Amino acid sequence: MSAKLNVRIRRGEGCLLRLLGQIGRRGYDVLAVSARLSADGTVFDVAVLVEPFLPLAPGKPRPLEVLPALLRKLIEVESAELVETPTSAPAKAAEEKPAKAKEPKPTGEMAWEE
After folding, report:
1. Fewer Cβ atoms within 10 Å of its own Cβ: the N or the C terminal residue of the chain?
2. Across residues 2-8, what is the average pLDDT?
């Protein structure tokens, strides 16, 4: 389950490394990064594709919704927003009919008969 973040960060020494390090330390894996310097050269517009890799508990994924708030705590970050999150199941899958139960095929195992 991945999501895209749009982050606006002031240009400074190591600002992109701090941004990506914060994402990694919080338990998210960076899948892709795209950064563009603004026309005036003062801020970067960064698009980051992330995915949680450390679960909170077994079977409980780390929520992506908290990541923008964590990134806004960095001094250089002017804005951070979660742009898109994939749906848990496609709409087409909800419309599919359940498959009919098939009869088990013989496995070739030996059975004792009395």
Report:
1. C
2. 94
Contact between 48 and 33 (Cβ < 8 Å) = yes
pTM: 0.68
Tens-digit pLDDT profile for residues 64-91: 899 999 999 999 999 999 987 655 444 4
Number of domains in the chain: 1
48: domain CATH number is 3.30.70.260
Reported as a pLDDT band with limits 50, 70 and 90, residue 114 is: low
DSSP 61-95: PPPGGGHHHHHTTSTTEEEEEEEE---SS-HHHHH
Report the alpha-carbon distance of residue 71 to residue 82 in Å, rounded.
Answer: 11
**Pair of tokens at residue 55:** 């679960």
